[in-house]
Amino acid sequence: MQKYLIILLTLIITGCSSLEFPGVYKIAVEQGNVITQEMVDQLESGMSRDQVEYIMGRALIKDPFNTDRWDYIYTKRIGEEEGVKHYLTVFFEGDLLKSFQSDIEPSPADVAETEVSDTNATAEELTPETEPSS
């Protein structure tokens, strides 16, 4: 009788351990350097290493064999679910930023802001000239 009771209790305990309790909060686990669209938009060719580090933070991976490459990696996972993953690799030539690769594309520059440099221009100056009709 005791033998059956021990087996029954063992089955009950092991059966309950595989169940998840409802309403249990699972924290978001963030790892690496946060990479945002604003950060990627600020990167420009010709920036110094200090400027890149100021914008992006200290690189997660600095290759000791290739000092001209810095890797930034960011992952966020909530519980067991796959979360957000971003990467950015920065390449230097000497002490200046040569290029970068990322899964976040830089935003295109606003053409309207760059075309009108004189803020005091009148509407007549901004409209294209038309030929007088006869």
Overview in brief:
This protein is of the alpha+beta class and 134 residues long. It has five helices and five strands. Helices cover 29% and strands 25% of the residues.
Question: Would you mind describing this structure in some detail?
Answer:
The chain is an alpha+beta fold and 134 residues long. The chain has a domain at 26-103: Beta-lactamase Inhibitory Protein, Chain:B, domain 1. The chain has five helices and five strands. The chain has helices at 2-17, 37-42, 49-56, 111-115, 123-126, and strands at 28-32, 61-62, 69-78, 84-93, 96-102. β2 and β3 form a beta hairpin. The longest helix is centred in the N-terminal third of the chain and has 16 residues, at 2-17. The model is unreliable at 110-134 (pLDDT under 50).
